UniProtKB/TrEMBL annotation:
<dbReference type="Pfam" id="PF02321">
    <property type="entry name" value="OEP"/>
</dbReference>
<keyword id="KW-1134">Transmembrane beta strand</keyword>
<keyword id="KW-0813">Transport</keyword>
<dbReference type="InterPro" id="IPR003423">
    <property type="entry name" value="OMP_efflux"/>
</dbReference>
<feature type="coiled-coil region">
    <location>
        <begin position="353"/>
        <end position="384"/>
    </location>
</feature>
<dbReference type="InterPro" id="IPR051906">
    <property type="entry name" value="TolC-like"/>
</dbReference>
<keyword id="KW-0472">Membrane</keyword>
<keyword id="KW-0998">Cell outer membrane</keyword>
<keyword id="KW-0175">Coiled coil</keyword>
<protein>
    <submittedName>
        <fullName>TolC family protein</fullName>
    </submittedName>
</protein>
<comment type="similarity">
    <text>Belongs to the outer membrane factor (OMF) (TC 1.B.17) family.</text>
</comment>
<keyword id="KW-0732">Signal</keyword>
<keyword id="KW-0812">Transmembrane</keyword>
<feature type="signal peptide">
    <location>
        <begin position="1"/>
        <end position="30"/>
    </location>
</feature>
Length: 457
């Protein structure tokens, strides 16, 4: 504390500091706490449409293309500019003229300065484009350019939707796997305890205890790995949603419920309209861009016409006195019309036009190839979805059958009618069928998302 400062002031400042800490500390602490989210799949998709990083930048591309379109249009609108210049000729440039003009000796020359020490200029100019074929094509190209980014935004939305569905399904798969593995672990621990007690009583072999221990250790390892994967899959989903990795996220849908919602074979019966596919529309846009390039090269053979209107003032003085009311300013103005007629370019324009035509033909061929590829992709996606639905039904029945077999082996083992090896085999068969069933449910969700990605409009 300053020695000149009174104790009262010092105590007052300490009290004020303590009060500020009490007031703002809870708010600062609240700001540091992570956010919490609880989403169904549909809610997750809606969140991603607003906060996904790629979608945000895709929307910015659209906004930038709007500005680019206006930039192109503005080229043909009046352009006004103003300029000012001040020059200090501290060493004035001189020229020589014959001395006899001033009555001097013929054959001799006299150096004369044709400028003043200080000069100032102020001017304004208006330029207006009257006709330019490239400008007309450029305006059309700007609209095509804007349409490209709009379609690109649609494509991004569709792709991110598929990514959200896949990431959400992986989280559900991991969580369901953890739940099943924990049940299997509890069953194996019970089996091991009962078998160990029977071994102590002489009613079971040590090999039986060891066999169950092997299966239990494998299950525990799988469970630990599944728990690690749960965090990874949740973080992957957060990243797609545009959520901070430190925030909390809870998925509310159940894997089996979501699978049943996606069991819709009627979707495979609809006719595939390839021209509504977003990739096909991007191909059409690319073809239109190449067509405009051909038009642009052709337009360069047309005359261009523009006009300019300018006016300004010049001031001259041997002293810097331009702000004096007596300063004389010499005005000037002009109107100019500029006409440029291309006549001969040694066939350079023709070569550029032919190159543009070749690129247009390439774009047409690429579009035809894209159309065939999309039709093939649709057939493959439809086949994979139909197979996933069939596999889901098969794996569900196989799991129920494996559960019954394992249950019977449990009973036989307890009654001494079955060996620990036979029980372990039945358990491994059950665990494999459980994993197949979980994967089959996720495949139904993912393959339908892939099919909808192709048919999205």
């Amino acid at each position: 504390m300053n020695q000149n400062q009174s104790p009262f002031v010092g105590n007052f400042l300490k009290g004020l500091s303590l009060l500020l800490v009490c007031l703002f500390a809870p708010q600062m602490q609240a700001q540091e706490q992570p956010n919490s989210y609880s989403y169904s799949l549909q809610e997750a998709v809606q969140h991603a449409m607003e906060y996904n990083y790629t979608i945000i930048n895709s929307e910015r591309d659209v906004q930038a293309s709007y500005k680019k379109k206006w930039e192109t249009i503005a080229v043909g609108l009046p352009q006004i500019s103003a300029s000012g210049n001040y020059q200090n000729n501290f060493t004035i440039q001189q020229s020589v003229i014959p001395s006899e003009i001033f009555g001097g000796t013929p054959g001799e020359f006299t150096a004369i300065a044709f400028s003043t020490r200080h000069t100032a200029t102020a001017s304004a100019k208006l330029d207006q484009l009257i006709f330019d074929g490239s400008y007309i094509v450029g305006v059309k190209a700007a609209k095509t350019f804007l349409d490209f980014y709009k379609i690109s935004k649609e494509k991004t939305d569709i792709e991110i939707t598929e990514q959200v569905i896949n990431a959400y399904g992986n989280v559900l798969l991991t969580q369901e796997n953890i739940s099943i593995l924990e049940k299997n672990k509890a069953t194996l621990e019970k089996n091991k305890f009962e078998t160990n007690e029977s071994f102590k009583s002489g009613f079971a072999e040590e090999e039986d205890v060891e066999q169950i221990s092997i299966t239990l250790a494998s299950t525990v390892s799988s469970l630990n790995n599944a728990k690690r994967l749960e965090k990874i899959t949740l973080n992957m989903l957060k990243l797609v949603l545009g959520i901070n990795l430190d925030d909390d996220l809870v998925v509310t849908d159940k894997l089996e419920d979501l699978t049943r919602e996606n069991l819709d074979l009627a979707i495979t019966g609809t006719e595939f309209n390839v021209k509504s596919n977003v990739d096909y529309r991007m191909g059409m846009n690319n073809q239109e861009q190449r067509r405009l390039e051909v038009m642009n090269e052709k337009s360069k053979a047309l005359p261009t016409l523009s006009t300019s209107l300018a006016f300004g003032y010049n001031g001259f003085n041997n002293d810097f006195d331009f702000f004096n009311s007596q300063q004389q300013w010499l005005d000037y103005s002009y109107l100019s019309v500029n006409l440029n007629i291309p006549i001969f370019s040694s066939f350079a324009r023709s070569a550029r036009t032919q190159q543009a035509k070749i690129k247009l033909e390439q774009a047409k061929t690429e579009l035809t190839e894209l159309e065939q590829n999309l039709k093939l992709q649709y057939e493959q996606a439809k086949s994979e979805y139909e197979y996933s639905v069939e596999e889901y039904t098969t794996s569900k029945n196989n799991m129920r059958l494996a559960e019954r077999i394992e249950n019977k082996q449990q009973i036989k083992f307890r009654e001494g009618l079955s060996s620990s090896f036979e029980l372990s085999e039945a358990q491994r068969q059950l665990y494999a069928s459980q994993q197949n069933y979980l994967q089959a449910m996720v495949n139904v969700i993912n393959t339908k998302a892939a099919l909808q990605k192709l048919t999205a409009q």
